[in-house]
TrEMBL record:
Protein name (Swiss-Prot/TrEMBL): tRNA guanosine(34) transglycosylase Tgt
Keywords: Glycosyltransferase, Transferase, tRNA processing
Single biological process term from Gene Ontology: tRNA wobble guanine modification
SUPFAM superfamilies per UniProt: tRNA-guanine transglycosylase
Gene giving rise to this polypeptide: tgt
A Pfam family reported for this protein in Swiss-Prot or TrEMBL: TGT
Domain tRNA-guanine(15) transglycosylase-like, residue spans: 11-413
Amino acid sequence: MFRIFKKSKKSKARVGIIKTAHGIIKTPFFMPDATRGFVKMIDNHESKKFGIQSVVINTLHLYLQPGVKVIKKFKGAHNFMNWQKSLLSDSGGFQIFSLIHKSGKMGSINDDGAIFKSPIDGAQHKLTPEKSIQIQFDLGVDMIVALDDCPPNEFERASIEKSVKRTIEWAKRCREEYDKQVKKRKIASQNFLPLLFGVIHGGAELDLRKKCAVELIKLNFDGYCFGARPVDKQGNFLDKALQCTADLIPEDKLRFALGVGRPEDIFRCVKYGWDMFDCVIPTREARHGRLYKFFPDYGRICSVKYIPLAQKSRMVNRKSKIKNSNFKIESNFKPQTSKFYDILNINNSKFRADTNSIDRNCDCELCQDYSAGYMHHLFKIKEPLGARLATIHNLKFYLKLMEIIRKEIKRGEI
């Protein structure tokens, strides 16, 4: 169940909650990708401690390995992962179609579904809209995404138009199969039925986006996703398409900006009315030594201010950890440009003897206990501890970003 508590008067941003069988989610929110049943480099204890509200698992990958039969023995993915907060499963379609579009030898797509070769052992599989929904029910997730035909954005209009038509037909079949599974599995509580999302396609063609949205809205999904990558083949953000697609979705429905993950893109999409975000960016960038940090000169870029964790420079690698952070939000968050943060490349030689922390205003394990120089050392010798600490730091950055955004919408500043 989705409920909106406050709408902005300055933009189309809104704050609300989603009630699921595994807890309440505050919107807008960001979900780390737990593709194969885990967020890379961190464990569930850390995820819960950070305040991660939900993660995204991949239907295709879990179907292939360990397999649905295994997960059913655990009575669902929550128990299999030992994760008792909300889970969203994507349909697996993006991965399948990426394989097929990159190489015709990996499979084929027709109106019935997709036939593809497993990247694990080469075995042939068939995924239909019905099977995708069945698998996601077996996973026992809180939020389900309908199978869609996801072509690259650079496809010609005729091909995108064909994918829109197929996506609409598949959405109808997903809706029917969802209703069948609810009855078959005797899911009694209407309040905690898994939420079902349709996917709006059309590439950068706004009229096709509208055509797809109009037809999907007739099916009364709980939410709607922005389909395909949010950037064109040159890497330019599809700003107009994201804005127009959000406008097409009814206000009482969830809006999921699939794959939108750069902080500035999340911020602008929140202002367009999007509620949900997921991306591999924070964890993937962390594994390459790229660390996110808010600019200290907030007066020039935005009005976020942090109370320092200590008045003087702290000693790094001290024996005792700071258990209670003094981090808090003093005022508004109003990025006037996309540059309200920086990305530090810890592999850069300038950090080799840097005795400072990455960010003295961050309360994560990395910033509290280790220096930039030590992190540089860990990455140079390829020690996994470096990637783990970087992942913790980047996820904390993203969670703080979403917390600030929610508070500033409530304050009427976004």
